[in-house]
Amino acid sequence: MRPELKDRFDQEIRSNKVVLYMKGTADFPRCGFSAAALEALRPFGRVYTVDVLADSEVREGIKEYSNWPTIPQVYINGRFIGGSDIIRELAARGELQDIIEGRAS
Amino acid sequence: MLDPNEIRRRIAESLPGSEVEVRDMTGTGDHFEAWVVSETFAGKPMVEQHQLVYRPLRDLLQSGELHALALKTFTPEQWRSDPVRKST
Fold first, then answer.
1. Which of the listed residues A10, B72, B76, B83 has the most CB atoms within 10 Å of its CB?
2. Residues of chain B whose C-beta is under 8 A from some C-beta in A?
3. How far apart are CA A83 and CA B50, in angstroms?
4. A33 vs A64, A74, A88, B40, CA distance in Å?
5. Pairwise CA distance, residues B36 & B20, whole Å
6. Nearest by Cα to A75 from A5, A16, A1
7. What is the DSSP string of B21-78?
8. Cβ A82–B50 below 8 Å, yes or no?
9. Residue B61 is nearest to which of A70, A80, A89, comparing CB atoms?
């Protein structure tokens, strides 16, 4: 991965509390899994979204960066949390808010 | 078009002793759901559990042949006692 791309991800993840790498935009998700992750996160405040379909280098790069082969991907408080299955489960357990507010490990 | 049995075989070989079920969700051979029960998951966070399942499928995900894989991972203990994971 180009160092500039890694720096970009580092920066995005550090400067936004909740970051969602998704297919499509927040207004027009282009994949059901991305849409589901966004809906699970939305009740807890601002979600910074990155449309990976807009840039194939970002789309492949984030998979390598996270060691995670699929989109969507969620980072909260600088930490990789997982894909849509994990986000939906954390939401169902009522644990997302604690993670976002830094009360959970 | 992928055969769900191929996905099941790869996961099962990669995680010996696991129970694996794979369903084709759309009938189009590229959107699947997998449920995996394995002792290997014990003590590991969900992210690592999912990474373990993705590992033998990496080339299929990379090529796009496998477009989507919804995942549920369980330790044998969770399989017996965790209703949330089964229902979400």
1. B72
2. 46-47, 50-51, 54, 57-58, 61-62, 68-72, 84-85, 87-88
3. 9
4. 19, 12, 10, 27
5. 5
6. A16
7. EEEESSSSSSEEEEEEE-GGGTT--HHHHHHHHHGGGHHHHHHTSS-EEEEEEE-HHH
8. yes
9. A70
**CA–CA separation, B5 vs B65, rounded Å?**
15
Residues across chain A: 105
The gap from C-alpha A46 to its chain's centroid, in whole angstroms, comes to: 12
Query: In terms of residue numbers, what domain contains B53?
Result: 4-80
The answer to the question of residue B52 being in a domain is: yes
Distance of CA B7 to the CA centre of its chain: 8
ipTM confidence score:
0.81
Instruction: Name which CATH class applies to A3-100.
Output: alpha beta
Q: Is B33 within 8 Å of B25 (Cβ atoms)?
A: yes
- The domain total for chain B is 1
Band (pLDDT 50/70/90 cuts) for residue B60 is very high
| A33-53: pLDDT as tens digits | 999 999 999 999 999 999 999
